[in-house]
Structures
1.
Amino acid sequence: MVQKFRGLSEALTGLILMLIFVWCCSGCVGPGGAVADRIGSRAGFEKTFLWTREFTLTAYWRGRRPGAPLNLYLEGDGSAWISRSWRSDDPSPRDPVALALAARDPGANVAYLARPGQYAAPGSPPVDPAFWSDRRFAPAVVAALGEAADLLLAKTRAKGVNLIGYSGGAALAVLMAVQRNDVLSLRTVAGNLDPEAVNRHHRVSPLAGSLNPMDAAAQLRDLPQRHFAGAEDAVVPPFAAGNFIRRQGGDDRRVIIVPGVGHGNGWRERWWELLSFPLF
C-alpha cells in the first residue's frame, strides 16, 4: 500500500512539473498580465509588442481619429520590489493603475506603455533587473519609451502627444517631454517627480544610473501641465510634486492635492473629473 501511494505521488509530481513546464514555454500570461488584458479588452484596446533598440515594450492602444492628439499613459514601477531589500524577478504590476486610467480616457487616440520587463512578450530577451530598480529612469529607458511613442504615433496617425505618467511613470514622462518637440501637455498622477527627496523620506539609497526629473523641471516651465497628488499617499507624498513646481518656478495651481486618495487607490473613480481640470 505504501509503495502504491509513493508511486502515485511520484506520478502526480511528474505531471505537475510537466504542466508547469508547458505553461512556462507556451507564453501564457501570469495573473498580472491577465488583469491587464482584461482591462485592455474592455476598453477596446489592441495589445501589441513594440520592439525598440534596447527593450521590447508591451502596449495597449486604440486609434479612432487620425490627426487627433495621442493621449499616452506611462505605467508606474509596478512590482519592482518584494521588500525594501528584495528585488522582484517580475516587475509587472498586479494592479496596472495607469492602464485603468487610460481605459477611462474618452480621447480619440489613447495608448498605454508598460515599462521594461513588465508583461514581457513571449520569447523576448530578458531584461536586466537594474532597469526596474536603480536604473529605472536611465537614459536607455527614456530612449526606448520615446521610440515606442513614435511607433504608437504612427499606428494612430496622431499629431502630437499628451503625456500622462503614473508614479515612476511620471518621472519618465517628464524626462521624455524635455527631449521631444511634439509634446502638447503633461499630466502626472501620484508622480515621483523628486526621487531623491522621496528616497530620503523613506530612508533608502539614492538611485544609481538614473536621470533626475528635477533637473528637467525648469525646461518645462512653459509646457501646459497638471500634477495630481493623493492627500493620503504614503508612497509618494504630495511634497514631490510641490518640489518639482518650485524648482520649475511654475504656477502653484499646477498641483492638485486630491483628498481621500492614496498612491494606488481612488484615482480610477476620480479620473474623468480630474481630466477635465484645465492645464496651466
2.
Amino acid sequence: MIRFGFLILIIISLLTGSCSGRKPKLDKRNLIPEKELVSLLTDIHLTDGLLSISRINYWASSLDSITTYYQVIENHGYTKETMDKTMKYYFLNNPKKLNKIYDQVLGRLSEMESRVEKESIITLARNSNIWPGKGFYSFPSLSSNDSTVFDMTLYKPGVYTLSFSITLFPDDQSINPRATAFSCSSDSTETGKRLYVKSPDYIKDGRPHTYNLIIIVPGNRIRHLRGWLYDFDNLPYGHEKHVKIENISLTHTLVAV
C-alpha cells in the first residue's frame, strides 16, 4: 500500500514563505529535472513504506521520518533547499504538471509491485516443486540415452499435479504423441493394478502448450507413479523426434480423498 509521505515535504516547503495571499513568482532555474524528480519521489515512497515495517522502523528509530526523507534527497545528489524550491514551484505554479509527475511515480510503484508479486509466485512454485527429474528435455538430444521416463514414490495422501509445457514441432514424426502416466500400489509395482492418468494428445504446431496431469493418492496409501512425458505409438527408433519439454513441476495439495 502506498502512503503519501512526500506530502510532508510539500507542506514544509509551503510553510516557508508561502503564507501570504499573493502568489509568489518562482523561477525555473536550478530545479530538479522531471525525470530525476520522478525517481526521487519514487524512492521517498519506498522509504515511507519500509518505515512502516516494525523491524526497519526500530532500526531507524534514532532518526525522525523527515530526516530520513532528506537523506534520500541527498543520496540523489540534491539538497533540502533544492527539493523545497522544486516542490514549491510545481505546487504553486504548475500543479497540473505535478499531477503528471506523480502519475509517473504511481506507475513505477505499480510496476515494481507487479514484478515483486510475479517473482514471489515463481519463488513459491519453485519451493513447492517436488519433481525429482530434469527440468528440461529436448529432442533431438545430445545424449542418445536421454529419456523422459519418470518413476517416483508418492508418500503423502492428497492431490498431485504434474504440470509441464510441450512444444511439438510440425516435422516431428511421432504418431499419437502424448504423456503416459499411471500409478499403482507401492507393494505391487510390477503386477498390481495400474490406474492410468488421463492425458490429452499433444498439439503439433510448433507452439508451447501447457498440460496438467492430476494424480490422486487416497489416505494411508503409498502410491508409485511411473510414465513418460513424451510417449507415442510408433517404435522409439527409426523416426525423427522434434520436441521441447520445459517448465516441469510436480506439486502436492493435502486434501481429504
3.
Amino acid sequence: MIEIRHSSITNSTKSQSAYDDLYQDGGIDLSDSYYLWLLEKIKPVPGKVLIDVSCGRGKLAILAKNRGLRVIGLDFSLSALKVAQLADPELDILVSDGEQIALKANCADYVTHIGNLEHYQNPSSGVREVARLLKPEGTAVILLPNGFSIVGNIQHVRKTGQVFDDGQPIQRYNTREGWKELLEANGLTVFRTIRYEHFLPKTKQDWISHLKRPSRLLRWALAWAIPFNLSNCFVYFCRRASIAD
C-alpha cells in the first residue's frame, strides 16, 4: 500500500478540521453522473435503508432519497453537512466519524462508501463499521483507488516522478487484490468487483463539462482497452463475511 500523510494530520480531529477547510474552499464532489451510474449498478429497492458513509455534501444521499430510499448521510465535516442540509432540508444527516458510527448494528440494507476509506486514520476500523451496520442480507458498495492506474497514477509518476497527491489530509493507494484483502480481513466478503473509468454523462450539466474537455469522452471510448487490474478505481460489492461464508 502507498500512503501520503501530511505531517500535521496526527488524529481524526485534525483530519476533521482539514476537511472543513477543504469543503469551505469548494469541496471534492464527484459528478452527478457518477453517482447516478453507481445507483444503477446497486439497483436499490425503494423503501430500503441506505447509509452513505462520509457523504460529504450529500449528492449521492440526495439522489438516493429521490429514488425512494430511506437515507442517512453521515460525515464528520460540518462544512460539508451544512451544504447537504441546504440542498435538502429533509435529508437525515448525522455528524459522525466513519471509524466510530453512532448507529445500531444491522440497520442498513445498503452502505455506500465512495472514495473515502483510503483517507481514514485507520481504514480497517472503517471497514469493520460498515460490516457492523449491514443487515444479514445487506450490500456494501465501496470505491477505492488503484495505485497502478494506467491513465492515472502511472501517467502521473511517469511525468513527475511522484505519486499523485490530491491534497487531502491522508491519501492511500493499493492494488485490486490488496484492497480486497483489507476488506475481507475486517468483516466483509467481496462478491463482485467492477472498474471505474469515465463513462457517458447522464445529466445536461455533465454533458456540457465533457464537451469542454473532449479528452474525457476519448477516455470513455478507450476504457475497454485498459486491463482490469490497471483501472482507475475499483468498486467492491460486499456482504457481511459471517453470512457470505
4.
Amino acid sequence: MAGLAESGSNPDVDLLYDINGLAKDAPAWSDRVMEYVGEYGLLLGIVLLVVWCWWSVRRRGGEDAASTVAALVWAPLAAGIAVLVNVPIRGFVERPRPFLDHQGLEVLVQGKTDYSFVSDHATIVMAMAVGLFVAHRAYGLVALVLALFGGFIRVYMGVHYPTDVVGGFALGTAVALLLSPLAMALLTPLVKAVERSPRAGWLVRGRGRAEGEDTVIPEARTERTSERDLAA
C-alpha cells in the first residue's frame, strides 16, 4: 500500500500540496484557528446540533417524537461503530501520514504517529451528520456542510491525504445508512418505553406535551363553558 503515498503525477498528492499550500500563505493566527476547528471545533459543533435538534423535538412533541429521538441516539452510536470498523482498515492499509513521506508540508498539528487511511475525524463527523440527517433534514444538512468543511481542514492541516478524507466520508456514511434500519428497529421501542416512563419521559417529550393532552384540555374547557351558558 506504499504506492498510495508516492508522489509524481499522483493527483492525491498534488491536491494535498494545493490545499495545504493555503496554510503556508495564511497568517499564523488563522492557522491556529483552523487547527482548533479541525481538531475539536467542528466535532463539537455537530454534537451541539444533535443536542439542539433533540431539544427542539422534545419541546414540539408529536407522534413522531420517539422515532426522531431514536434516530438522534443512533447518530453518535453510528460514529462510534464506524471508528471501530476503521481499526482493522487502518491496520491493513498501513498508510503513513503525508508529512512522513513528503517534504515541504505545513503541518499544523504535531505528534500524529498513527496511520493516515482512513481519517477518524472524517469518519466521525460524517457518520454523525448522516445520522442527524436521517433524524431531521434541516439540521442534517447543516451538519453535512460542517462535515465536508471538516474534511477539507484535515487536508489543510497537512495530516491527511484527500483520499483519507474521502474514505472516512464513505465509511461514516455506509455505517450510518446501512445499519440504520436495524438500529431504528432496536432503538425506537426502547425510546418509546422511555417516553411512557413517568420519570424519564421528559427525555423524549417535554412536559405538557403528552400524547392526547392538547385535545383533552380544550374539550374540557368547551364543556365547562357550555354548562355556564346553560345555567345563565
